[in-house]
Amino acid sequence: MDFHELELTGYRYWAGKKRFALAKDKNADWVMFAIESGRISFAIGPSSGVAGAGEAVICPPGVWLEREALTPVTFHFVSFRFMDRPKDWPDLEEEHLYGGLTASRHIRFDDRDRLFSALRMMREVEAVKPEQAGKWRNYLLNDLDALAGYQLMRRTFAAAERTADELVEEAKRLLRKSAEAPFEIRQIALKLGLTPVQFTRRFAKGTGQTPLDYVTALRIGKACRLLEETDETLDSIAEQCGYESGFYLSRLFLKQKGLRPSEYRKRYRV
């Protein structure tokens, strides 16, 4: 996401407003309604909803903003534009990301204390000279833009991590289901919509082991239980664990456990 410095073009504070003079209007600049208390309903193009304390409604320039006070509402009206507006500025009625505040039409701030602190300072600087008040409000506006951008970035990464976790869990489920019979990693990767290389890398990143190592641990674990609890032959145990022969299982078992299956059975069978 590209961030562009914002320039404040207007500011007004309203306390306990019971209704809006205009049900809808459009502005030449971006507009933000940052709410301290109360609730409003809004519609901006295809976006609509209800916003309350600790939230903000953002409307692009040249787009109709419909609003209604559902309860007496205390809010900060801020208009702004981009100081370095790109020459290839897109159609304003399309959804484009140009910074934190303009990435969404309705923002719920996670750090409400910081939001309310910035809004309080925006109101309090009314006491200083107009040019000084403008500079401070401009600084606070860009601080809120950065806050909204950071929040969006954090949520995007969190969503990506959840998606990765979900993929790994689904991969584990598929591997457990396939572990007791011969299979190819390619088959599992295909079911997950990945190439074998992509699957192996993402699984290893999420678990610390390769898919083959994960399956081997499952199979050896089952072999251990069968050796401890049954009198079945090594060939029979190998077949139940997804291996073609007892000879191959014996070699792998020795490598993984440091002793042969027969020695393991004598030592751990109860």
End-to-end gap: 62 Å
H/I helix tally = 8
Largest sheet: 5 strands, antiparallel
Helical content class: 40-55%
Count of the separate structural domains: 2
The CATH first-level class of the largest domain comes to: Mainly Beta
Biggest sheet, spatial arrangement of strands = 1-8-3-6-9
Q: What is the chain-wise order of helices and strands? A: EEEEEEEEEHHHHHHHH
Q: Can you tell me the CATH topology of the largest domain?
A: Jelly Rolls
Concise summary:
It is built from 8 helices and 9 strands.
Protein model, in words:
With 270 residues, the protein is an alpha+beta fold. The protein folds into 2 domains: 152 residues, Jelly Rolls, CATH 2.60.120; 92 residues, Arc Repressor Mutant, subunit A, CATH 1.10.10.60. The chain contains 8 helices and 9 strands. The longest helix has 49 residues.
Keywords:
five-stranded antiparallel beta sheet, 2 domains, Arc Repressor Mutant, subunit A, alpha+beta, Jelly Rolls, 8 helices, 270 residues
Question: Helices and strands in order, then pairings?
Answer:
Layout: E1 6-17, E2 24-25, E3 30-37, E4 40-44, E5 47-51, E6 55-59, E7 65-69, E8 73-82, E9 106-108, H1 112-124, H2 130-178, H3 185-191, H4 196-207, H5 211-229, H6 234-240, H7 246-257, H8 261-268
Antiparallel strand pairs: 1-8, 2-7, 3-6, 3-8, 4-5, 4-7, 6-9
Helix pairs in contact: 1-2, 2-4, 3-4, 6-7
